Amino acid sequence: MNYDLVIIGGGPAGLAAATAAWEDGCRSICIVERDRELGGILNQCIHNGFGLHYFKEELTGPEYAGRFIELLRSTGVDVRLDAMVLEVTAQKQVHIVSAAAGYEVLEARAVILAMGCRERTRGAISIPGTRPAGVFTAGTAQRYMNIEGYMVGRRVVILGSGDIGLIMARRMTLEGAKVLCCVEVMPYSGGLTRNIVQCLNDFDIPLYLSHTITDIQGRDRVERVVVSQVGPDRRPIPGTEMTFDCDTVLLSVGLIPENELSRAAGIQMDPRTNGPVVYENMETSIPGVFACGNVLHVHDLVDFVTAEAARAGRAAAALCAGGPPAASRVLELKNGAVVGYTVPQRIHLDADFQAAEVFFRVRAVCGRSRITVTDGIGRRLASFSRERLAPGEMEHIRLPRALLNSAQGAITVSIEEEKP
Under CATH, what is the fold of the domain 1-119+255-326? Predict the structure, then answer.
């Protein structure tokens, strides 16, 4: 079957991309979603705080997804649910399988990758100890509680201070569990400041920075965990052990973009983000294949996912409408001091845009700082002031076309912390 645009993933990124492409005139769109319903991870995020940027109001995750699902119902977008994508080729053939239609190959003029991300597990971080029941990733526990209706434990220790873990600390407490502590191996939190305040501080849940779990004990079910302080090398310090009697361990130790399909297609990947290398319009190294959302880089806010996916949807619609091919002049973006990565990594200087949206994360907590943008000869093109920067919060700057056109060579985004 042939479509102009095939979108892989029906979560917030896929929904926003489809909506934007339809609004820009693309009338042959198919969303392929492996779950039984649209919405992705938002369906289990029953807390509020979504939509403040995009809808200018506070919504729960299902409400936010519902807004886009309703918009989609007013379009002619074809939706394949409970369908698994097996392969995406460089020729934009999407191989899928489902109980309803069996094995199919969808031919597309453009493809948008919106597969999201997955959680790191206990095996990925090699926590020592026995292998009892009661060890969950935070997202799995969230699904059990909010969708399946199961209480996963009563006395809980959370490893990692990612946003899902922080939110689950509050959720478990509200359901009557005792969250003993949240343990973070880094000297700073990995989550948003507002989640630290609302989910830990407001419930008097201690956060142990520069600590990690060094042993999980129990036979059939978790009985206790040992927590140790770590040094600057992230190694446990002997003699600092604390033992917590608990029946549950939740892991919030990072997210991994789901890019098996991307790699198999031969798309160039960025080892810093574990996602595809993209241009300012979200196009990957394969012309006509775009990427957006958490499959590209892990976001803090779904509103930013929506804006990024809409950009990909509009670009895909323009390509399907016979828009001009990609321009030849390309500007490369690099990460400088303290910056972990930039998205996009490349910009078409002749493309139709007023300003390039650049997202990045820092590698360390910084006080009052300046974000500096320099070109290949060391000339400062722009600077932006920030009161505070932290790895748990994604940063965003806009670079006008005139600034980019004046650059000589690649441009570098760096952080200069101001001395007190």
Answer: FAD/NAD(P)-binding domain (3.50.50)
In whole angstroms, what separates CA 319 from the centre of its chain?
A: 26
User: What Rg value do the Cα atoms of the chain yield, rounded?
Assistant: 22
Among 254-263, 290-299, 326-335, name the one with the lowest average pLDDT. Answer: 326-335
| pLDDT for position 353 | 86
What's the start-to-end Cα distance of the chain, in Å?
Answer: 63
Is pTM beyond 0.85? Reply is yes
Residues of the chain with CATH 3.50.50.60: 1-119+255-326, 121-253
Closest CA to 64 of 82, 78, 80, 46: 46
For residue 104, CA distances in Å to 85, 151, 250 come to 10, 39, 39
pLDDT at 324 over 70: no
Question: Considering the chain, what is the average pLDDT of its residues?
Answer: 95
- Structurally, at CATH architecture level, domain 328-420 sits in Sandwich (2.60)
- HSE value, Cβ hemisphere, 13 Å, CA-based, for 152: 29
Give pLDDT, residue 360.
Answer: 97
Quote the tokens at residue 201: 């501080």
Place of tokens 């989640």: 195
- Which residues lie closer than 8 Å to 279 by C-beta, 6 or more apart? 326, 330, 344, 346, 347, 348, 351
